[in-house]
UniProtKB/TrEMBL annotation:
Name of the protein described by the UniProt record: L-histidine N(Alpha)-methyltransferase
Gene encoding the protein: egtD
Any one GO molecular-function label of the UniProt entry: L-histidine N(alpha)-methyltransferase activity
Domain of life: Bacteria
UniProt keyword terms in alphabetical order: Methyltransferase, Transferase
Length: 326
């Protein structure tokens, strides 16, 4: 089995950051890619977001996985043993529910978490192997949005790819289809994908989830400017930008923006540009698409999967879909 060594130097993002920031801030309206959120500080802030009362996403998905983990594993494996892969694994917190169910079924489980953060994968590997004997963690430092490379499975194995946490919602509709097609191309017929998607719900629930009273989400949003100051030598003053969360019903998505409170110019020496902001002008930093009933299954079908079963919570706020590669 081949895995990519766990070293921060194995994945370089400086050129990617420079080109993406230049393109985004030179556009009208201005934007930044949401993956910029997840430096070390941003990842810690996001972990805090998942624990605040207003943010229903993590606890709702966890409740679904808690209730159905054994069934998910059994359906995905059939008569075979199961190997688990996770895209954008991060801390792999909810994944432990599925890993425990898999170990109860077959004693030893190979788990391949995939993420661009080597440090997050190291922490997850140590925690999981200590907490769940029987799980062998084979981490991959890899950008799954660009390439998905997996080792061949044994004839007696099926693979279950986990793409949970509603991460698919951060992609534009065309991009999400291409991503799922890329996942399908990496799988053998009969392998499975478990997809977690956030569902459309009352606007007030959505708005408070993305603009919490404690201001954790606002700090998470502004941290992208702190990162640009550090990595591109920029002179953003994050305190002069307000966090704004907006429900775009026409496109079925929550949007996050950073709005300049004043007229100002920001200098980014690393990419040799000065960016002018009018008072009230925003940087669009994230989209989080919310799915209507049946839309996730239709998307999976377009990508080459056969949807088998979808589980939801009692409020129908979140859905977890199991689909098989055909």
């Amino acid at each position: 089995m081949t895995t990519i060594p766990l070293s921060p130097s194995s994945f370089h993002v400086s050129d990617k950051i420079a080109s993406s920031v230049y393109e985004g801030l030179m556009s009208s309206p201005k934007w930044l890619p949401s993956w910029l959120f997840y430096d070390a500080a941003g990842s810690r802030l996001f972990d805090q977001i998942t624990q605040i009362p207003e943010y229903y996403v993590t606890r709702t998905e966890r409740s679904i996985l808690t209730a159905h983990a054994a069934e998910i594993v059994s359906r995905a494996a059939g008569e075979n043993s199961l190997r688990l892969v996770e895209l954008g694994a991060g801390s792999a917190d909810k994944t432990r529910l599925l890993l425990s169910a898999a170990v109860n079924r077959q004693d030893t489980v190979f788990y391949e978490p995939m993420d661009v953060s080597a440090s997050a994968l190291v922490e997850a590997q140590i925690r999981i192997e200590n907490e769940i004997p029987g799980v062998l963690v084979c981490p991959r430092v890899q950008d799954y949005t660009q390439d998905i490379e997996l080792d061949a499975t044994l004839p007696s194995e099926r693979r279950l790819v986990l793409y949970i946490g509603s991460s698919i919602g951060n992609f534009e509709p065309g991009e999400s289809l291409m991503l799922l097609e890329r996942v399908r191309a990496a799988l053998d017929p009969g392998d499975c994908l478990l997809l977690g998607v956030d569902l459309v719900k009352d606007e007030s629930v959505l708005h408070t989830a993305y603009d919490d009273a404690a201001g954790v989400t606002a700090a998470f949003n502004r941290n992208v400017l702190v990162r640009l100051n550090r990595e591109l030598d920029a002179d953003f003053r994050p305190e002069t930008f307000a966090h704004r969360a907006v429900w775009n019903s026409a496109d079925s998505r929550m949007e996050m923006h950073l709005v300049s409170n004043i007229k100002q110019t920001v200098w980014l020496p690393a990419i040799d540009v000065r960016v002018n902001f009018e008072a009230g002008e925003s940087i669009h930093t994230e989209n989080s698409y919310k799915y209507r009933k049946g839309c996730a299954e239709a998307l999976l079908q377009k990508a080459g999967f056969a949807p088998e079963i979808t589980w939801t919570d009692e409020n129908e706020w979140f859905a977890v879909c199991l689909a098989r590669a055909v």
